[in-house]
Write a structure and sequence with these properties.
The complex is a heterodimer of chains A (313) and B (701). With 313 residues, chain A is an alpha/beta fold. Chain A is 46% helix and 19% strand. The longest helix of chain A is centred in the C-terminal third of the chain and has 26 residues. Chain B has 701 residues and is α/β, with parallel strands linked by helices. Classes of the chains: A alpha/beta (313), B alpha/beta (701).
C-alpha cells in the first residue's frame, strides 16, 4: 500500500527524512526547515504562479460607485469602466490536531502525534508566511487547546507552544470537538484535520458531516503508523489498546491477514465517506517526508483554484 | 506410617506451583501497546517450545523439597502394634443409662439418645463390658453384663443397639437418682463377681438423658457414691424449649360443693427456659377444646392456677387441654373426681331417732357427709332382723340389751372381724356384753360417783387416742361422767384398758374376740351419763374408731402413671380398658390391682360394677428446663465430662495424645528436614551450573 506521492518522494531523494527532521527539537525550527526546503523546491515546480488576486473590468452602469471608475482607461478609451477586484480575502485556516492516546503510538521511533504536530506546525508556518490567518484546535475526547485564526506577529509562536504540549487525553472522540469548532468558527474557511481516523466508520461519517455541513472546506490528513498498515509484529504477546486499556492476547502471525483485510476495508470505507462528503483525504504514514504532505496540500488548493477559475470563466 | 497432623500433607500440592508459575509467566510476560484493537480478535496462544518444561531435573528437585517439607510438617510416625488403641489393660465396665421418661417424648430427643448410645456402643473396645439400662420410674435392664459378654465381640454393639431400639420413651416420671444408684450398684456387683469377668478397670456410668429439672434425685441423698465410678453425662437438648404442663390441684375442701363453685382447679406451669408465655386452657373431648378456652399468661419458670367452671351443656368434664407450647406430651389432663365412699355404721338401740337425750341422736350428728365419704347410720331396734346389707357395716354400735338371738348374730359378725362398740348404758347391757364375749355373765355394777368422774390414765399409745397424744389436745378433764358401770378388767382375758376413771375403774376396754375387736365403754355419751357427746373429743374419737374398724380408708385422689391402682373388689373377672383402647382381663380371684402405664381414663368392668379412674402424667415431667450438672456434683457425684464432648470425642482425644507422645519419641520430621536441605543444596548447585552453561554461548556469540 504505497501511495504515488510516496514513490515520488523516494525518487526525488532531496526530501527530508522524517527521522532526521524529528531530531530537531524545536517544532518551529522543524516547520521552518520543511517550508524553506519546500520553497526551494517549489520555484522549480510547474505550479508556480498560484495567486489569489484577480481583476476584471465591467462597463459602468448608472448607480455604480464612481470611486471605482478607472480613470486611466477612460483617458485612453473615453469609456467608463469599473475596475473590479477579486474579493481578496485572506484564507482563514484552522488546523485540528488529534492528540488522543492512540496518536502516541509509533513503531519507527516517531509517534503519530509528533508527526501530526510537525505537519500542523509546517502548515501553520507556511500559511502564516503567505499572510493567511491560521488557527489551532487540539483535542482528544474534548477540546484541549483552541487558538482562533489570526494573522498577527507572535500568533505563530503561541501556536507552536500549544502544539508542543504533550498529548494527555484518553480516547478519540471527534464528535464533541468538531461540533464545538463549528459553533465557534462562524465564518467559513478551511479546516485541516490531522487524525488517524481509527474509529467506527458510522461515527466518523456523522462527525465529518457536521464539519462539511457548516460550509467549511475540509482537508483530512490521516496519519498512520506503518505498523498499523502492515501489522508486522512477530511475537505473540498481550496487546494493550492505548485508548481503552483493553488487553488481548494476540498471536500476530495468526491474525495478520485478517487484520490487514479489516484495516483495508476500514480505509476504503473512510475514503468512500470522504468522497461522498467532498472532503479531501490524504493518507500519510510517519515514514513519509513532510514536504510531500505540504505538496499534496498545495496541489489540492491549486486544483480548487482551477476549478473556481473555470467556473468564473 | 501415620501422621499426627495429616492436613499439612495438603502442602504437598504446592509441588504444582512451579509448573503453574512457569506456564503463567509464559503467557503474560510481554505486553505490547497498540493504537486500537478494533480490528483484532483474541487468539488462544499456541503451544510453542517456550511453554514446554525445560530442566526437568530442577523441577524434580524442587518438587522433592516441597514434598519433604510437607511430609515433615505432617509429623509422621511409625505406629507400634500396641499403641493403636487405648493403653492395654483391663477393659472398662460401662453402664449406659438411657432415659425413657415421658419428657423424652419431646421432638427429636429419642432419636438423638439412640444415636448417642449407638456411638458410645460402637466406640467400646472388645475387652470392655457394657450393660444398657433404660430408666424412668423404674430401671429396666435392656442388656446385662452377662448378655454382653456372651455375645460375639463384633456383634455386641449391634445387639445392644437393637435392644435399645425395641424400647421407647413411656409416660413415667424420672427417678434419676434411683437409676444412678442402680447403675452404680450394678457396676459394684460386677466387681464382686468371681466369674471370668475382670475385677479391675475403670468403671463408668454414661447417662444419656434430657436431664430435666423434674428429675428426682432424692435417692442419691443418702447414697454414698462408690469411689472410682465415673459419671459421663451426655445431655440431650430439646429443639424447642417452651413447654407448659398441667397439674390437677387436689380438692382440699372437705365440705360439700357449693353451686357455682369451680369444678376443678388446674395448675399451669411453664418451664424456666420457655420462650412463650401465653397459653390456653379449657375442657376438651380428648383432641380439641370444648367451649371457649381460657387464656393464661404464665411467665417462664412460674405457675398459675386456673379455675375451670362447668363445661358447656352436653360436654363431659373429664379432660383438660393446654395449648400454646411446643411439646404436646404433657398437655392433656384426665380428671375423674373420686366418688364419696359410703360407709355404714350399724346401730342397735332402743330409743327413737328423735329422742334428743338418746345416744343415737348424737351419733347421727357426729358423722356429717363430706366430699370424701358419706357415713350412714343404720339404726336398728334391738329386736329387729338383720338385713343382708347390714352385715357390710364395719362398725357396730350397741347401746341396749339385745335378745339372745341378736346377740349371737352380732357375736358372729364380731368374731368374723368386725368392730363392735358396746356402751354400758345400764347394768342390763352387761348381759349382752357377756353374750358377745361368750360368757355366762359379766358383773357391771352401777358405780357410786360422788359428784362426777373424769378420765384419767388414758393410753395415748393406743390408736384410738393417738390423735390426742399431743399435750394441746390431751386434756380430758373437762369431760365429766355422772354415771358409769364398774367393770372388772380381770373378767376379760386379753383385755386392754385404754382409759380409766379417776377412781381407777376402767372406762374403756378393748377386748379381742375372734378376729374382731370389742370396745366396751363403761358409761354412755348421752347427757344423762356424761358430757362426752357434747365435748370436742367425741367426733375425733368416733372417727378414730371408724378408722380402726376399717371404715375409712385414706383415699388417693390422683394417680400418676406407674401407680398401682386398686380396683373395686368383686368376685367376677375384671375387664380393664386402657386409655389407648386396648383392654385386658384379670381373672377372678387375682389381686384386683392394675399397673398403669399411660395417662388417661381407665375403665374397669367387673360384673355389674364399673370403676373409672384417671391417671395423669407426673407433673414433674413438665419441668423440662435442663438441670444444671452442678446439681449432680453437689450430691457428690464425680461428673467428669459435662462439656458436650461425647465419649467418642474423648476417646479420640486420648488416642491423639498417645500418638503425639509416640511421634515425639520418634521425631521422623528431623530426617525429612535434613533430606529437604540436601535437596535444596543439590538444586542450588544444579541451577548454578545450568545458568553458567546457558550464559556461555551468549558470551561467545
Amino acid at each position: 500500500m504505497i501511495s504515488p506521492a510516496d514513490q515520488a518522494g523516494h525518487a526525488s531523494g532531496n526530501l527530508i527524512d522524517p527521522q532526521a527532521l524529528m531530531a530537531i527539537r524545536s517544532l518551529e525550527m522543524r516547520a521552518r526547515v520543511v517550508v524553506e526546503g519546500f520553497w526551494t523546491g517549489i520555484h522549480r515546480s510547474p505550479y508556480h504562479g498560484f495567486s489569489v488576486e484577480f481583476t476584471e473590468y465591467r462597463q459602468y452602469t448608472p448607480g455604480d460607485d464612481p470611486r471605482y471608475l478607472d480613470w486611466k482607461l477612460f483617458a485612453r478609451s473615453d469609456r467608463y469602466f469599473i475596475k473590479k477586484f477579486e474579493d481578496e480575502t485572506n484564507l482563514r485556516c484552522h488546523v485540528l490536531a488529534d492528540n488522543s492516546r492512540s496518536m502516541t503510538f509509533g513503531s519507527r521511533g516517531i509517534s503519530k502525534a509528533a508527526y501530526a504536530n510537525t505537519l500542523a506546525a509546517t502548515l501553520a508556518f507556511f500559511l502564516h508566511q503567505q499572510g493567511d490567518a491560521i488557527g489551532l484546535l487540539t483535542f482528544d475526547e474534548q477540546i484541549r487547546e483552541y487558538l482562533p485564526a489570526r494573522h498577527r506577529p507572535g500568533h505563530l509562536r503561541h501556536l507552536m507552544l500549544a502544539l508542543e504540549k504533550p498529548p494527555g487525553g484518553a480516547a478519540t472522540d471527534l464528535a464533541a470537538p468538531l461540533k464545538r469548532i463549528v459553533e465557534i468558527v462562524r465564518k467559513r474557511g478551511l479546516m485541516v484535520l490531522l487524525t488517524d481516523l481509527l474509529a467506527p466508520i458510522a461515527t466518523l461519517e456523522k462527525n465529518l458531516a457536521t464539519l462539511t455541513a457548516s460550509g467549511h472546506e475540509v482537508v483530512v490528513f490521516q496519519v498512520l503508523d506503518p505498523a498499523e498498515l502492515s501489522f508486522d509484529f512477530t511475537k505473540a504477546a498481550l496487546f494493550r489498546d492505548l485508548e481503552s486499556g483493553r488487553q488481548l492476547y494476540i498471536d500476530p502471525d495468526a491474525v495478520r491477514a485478517d487484520y490487514r483485510r479489516q484495516f483495508g476495508a476500514h480505509c476504503q470505507a473512510v475514503e468512500a465517506t470522504c468522497a461522498k462528503l467532498g472532503i479531501v483525504l490524504r493518507r500519510l504514514t510517519t515514514d513519509q517526508p513532510l514536504e510531500l504532505a505540504l505538496f499534496d496540500f498545495l496541489r489540492e488548493r491549486m486544483n480548487k483554484g482551477k476549478l473556481v477559475k473555470r467556473r468564473a470563466a | 506410617m501415620s501422621f499426627l497432623t495429616p492436613f499439612f500433607l495438603l502442602g504437598a500440592l504446592a509441588v504444582a506451583l512451579p509448573v503453574v508459575f512457569h506456564l503463567i509467566r509464559q503467557t503474560s510476560k510481554e505486553q505490547t501497546a497498540f493504537s486500537s484493537l478494533m480490528f483484532l480478535l483474541p487468539v488462544p496462544p499456541r503451544v510453542t517450545r517456550r511453554s514446554r518444561l525445560e530442566h526437568i531435573l530442577l523441577l524434580v528437585l524442587r518438587s522433592l523439597v516441597v514434598c519433604l517439607l510437607a511430609f515433615a510438617f505432617a509429623r509422621p510416625f511409625l505406629p507400634k502394634a500396641d499403641s493403636t488403641g487405648l493403653p492395654a489393660g483391663p477393659g472398662r465396665r460401662v453402664v449406659v443409662l438411657v432415659d425413657t421418661s415421658a419428657s423424652m417424648r419431646r421432638e427429636g430427643l429419642w432419636a438423638d439418645a439412640r444415636a448417642r448410645a449407638g456411638a458410645i456402643l460402637r466406640a467400646t473396645a472388645p475387652e470392655d463390658i457394657v450393660a444398657v439400662f433404660a430408666f424412668d420410674r423404674e430401671v429396666r435392664r435392656l442388656v446385662t453384663f452377662e448378655q454382653w459378654t456372651s455375645t460375639a465381640a463384633g456383634q455386641r454393639a449391634a445387639f445392644a443397639a437393637d435392644a435399645l431400639g425395641k424400647t421407647s420413651p413411656g409416660w413415667n416420671g424420672t427417678q434419676l437418682g434411683r437409676a444412678l444408684v442402680s447403675a452404680a450398684s450394678a457396676l459394684e456387683d460386677v466387681r464382686t463377681d468371681s466369674g471370668p469377668l475382670p475385677a479391675r478397670g475403670p468403671r463408668q456410668v454414661v447417662l444419656i438423658s434430657d436431664l430435666q429439672e423434674g428429675s428426682r434425685l432424692d435417692a442419691l441423698q443418702a447414697y454414698e457414691w462408690p469411689k472410682g465410678t465415673e459419671i459421663i453425662v451426655e445431655p440431650l437438648k430439646a429443639k424447642k424449649p417452651t413447654n407448659a404442663g398441667l397439674q390437677l390441684i387436689a380438692d382440699a375442701d372437705e365440705n360439700e360443693r357449693k353451686p357455682g363453685e369451680a369444678l376443678a382447679r388446674v395448675r399451669v406451669s411453664n418451664s424456666s427456659d420457655a420462650r412463650r408465655e401465653q397459653f390456653q386452657v379449657g375442657w376438651s373431648d380428648g383432641r380439641e377444646f370444648v367451649g371457649r378456652p381460657q387464656d393464661v399468661y404464665v411467665p417462664p419458670g412460674q405457675t398459675r392456677v386456673v379455675a375451670l367452671n362447668a363445661p358447656p351443656m352436653g360436654a363431659v368434664a373429664e379432660r383438660v387441654l393446654l395449648r400454646g407450647d411446643d411439646e404436646s406430651f404433657d398437655n392433656s389432663l384426665a380428671l375423674i373426681p373420686p366418688e364419696a365412699a359410703r360407709v355404714s355404721v350399724l346401730y342397735f338401740g332402743g330409743e327413737p331417732a328423735t329422742d334428743t337425750a338418746g345416744p343415737l341422736y348424737f351419733l347421727q350428728r357426729a358423722f356429717p357427709s363430706t366430699r370424701r365419704q358419706v357415713v350412714q347410720i343404720l339404726a336398728r331396734a334391738p329386736a329387729a332382723q338383720l338385713l343382708p346389707t347390714d352385715t357390710g357395716a364395719p362398725l357396730i354400735i350397741v347401746t341396749d340389751t339385745l335378745s339372745d338371738e341378736r346377740t349371737a348374730s352380732v357375736r358372729r359378725l364380731l368374731t368374723g372381724g368386725k368392730t363392735v362398740l358396746l356402751s354400758l348404758r345400764n347394768q342390763n347391757v352387761a348381759r349382752t356384753l357377756a353374750g358377745l364375749l361368750g360368757k355366762e355373765s359379766v358383773s357391771a355394777d352401777e358405780a357410786k360417783v360422788p359428784s362426777y368422774a373424769m378420765l384419767a390414765e388414758i393410753d395415748f399409745q393406743h390408736p384410738l387416742f393417738a390423735p390426742f397424744a399431743d399435750p394441746r389436745f390431751s386434756d380430758f378433764t373437762k369431760i365429766h361422767f355422772w354415771k358409769y358401770r364398774r367393770l372388772d378388767a380381770t373378767q376379760f382375758p386379753g383385755a386392754r384398758v385404754i382409759a380409766k376413771f379417776d377412781t381407777a375403774d376402767p372406762a374403756l376396754l378393748q377386748v379381742p374376740v375372734g378376729k374382731g375387736t370389742l370396745y366396751v365403754l363403761a358409761s354412755g355419751w348421752q347427757p344423762a351419763d356424761s358430757q362426752l357427746a357434747l365435748s370436742s373429743k367425741f367426733l375425733p374419737l368416733l372417727f378414730s374408731l371408724l378408722e380402726q374398724a376399717g371404715g375409712l380408708r385414706s383415699q388417693v385422689t390422683q394417680h400418676t402413671v406407674g401407680d398401682t391402682v386398686p380396683l373395686a373388689a368383686t368376685n367376677a373377672a375384671v375387664r380393664v380398658t386402657r386409655p389407648d383402647g386396648t383392654s385386658l382381663t384379670l381373672g377372678a380371684g387375682t389381686a384386683a390391682v392394675i399397673q398403669t402405664d399411660q395417662p388417661g381414663i381407665y375403665t374397669a368392668v367387673s360384673g355389674t360394677v364399673t370403676q373409672r379412674f384417671a391417671v395423669n402424667l407426673d407433673p414433674l415431667e413438665s419441668k423440662t428446663a435442663p438441670l444444671p450438672v452442678e446439681e449432680l456434683e453437689h450430691l457428690g457425684l464425680p461428673v467428669t465430662r459435662a462439656d458436650g464432648k461425647t465419649l467418642v470425642q474423648a476417646t479420640e482425644a486420648k488416642r491423639q495424645l498417645a500418638n503425639a507422645e509416640l511421634e515425639g519419641r520418634q521425631k521422623l520430621w528431623r530426617w525429612l528436614i535434613a533430606g529437604a536441605l540436601v535437596f535444596v543444596t543439590m538444586e542450588t548447585l544444579l541451577a548454578g551450573w545450568l545458568a553458567k552453561r546457558s550464559e556461555q554461548p551468549v558470551q561467545t556469540a
